[in-house]
Design goal:
Layout (H helix, E strand, L loop, with lengths): L3 H31 L5 H6 L3 H18 L16 H34 L5 H6 L3 H29 L5
Helix pairs in contact: 1-3, 1-4, 3-4, 3-6, 4-6
Amino acid sequence: MNWSYPLLILVQLAVAVLVGAGATYLGVLLFGRATRGIDEWQELRKGNAAIGIVLGAIVIAVAWVLRPTLYVPTGDWDVGALRTIAALGVEAIQLLLGFVLALLSILFSLWFFDRLTTQLDEWAELRRGNVAVACMLAGVILAVSLLVGVAVEGILTLITPYLF
């Protein structure tokens, strides 16, 4: 039996757990730098549910966009004994691309939505703990991530064969 494929699956599982936790943390951290005058960690300690809802949506959104990056179609490759190492290298490239696209799309969509809704200061409402505004922003974040996740999957389908 060729053990490279089961080994690849186990390594992909470990990568998914580690990268998932790290990427979502970085997503929340970068979101914190992009918000105006909100200390998200302090707000969470105070029990601000609105901030918790938005940060939770970011965690889910980053994971959703990264989901297709964990699949590497190794069945068609002819790379011999280096198959597992090559697949992990391609997976690393895909993860990096997916993470960058996830963060940029989420931050851009929030910025753009903020510009469209000039009659509402979303960030001030979040500071006040406005759960209704948090749910609306969470919806924006999740909707964008669903669409970007499909786009990332399409991009990866196009570029993965050219990585070898």
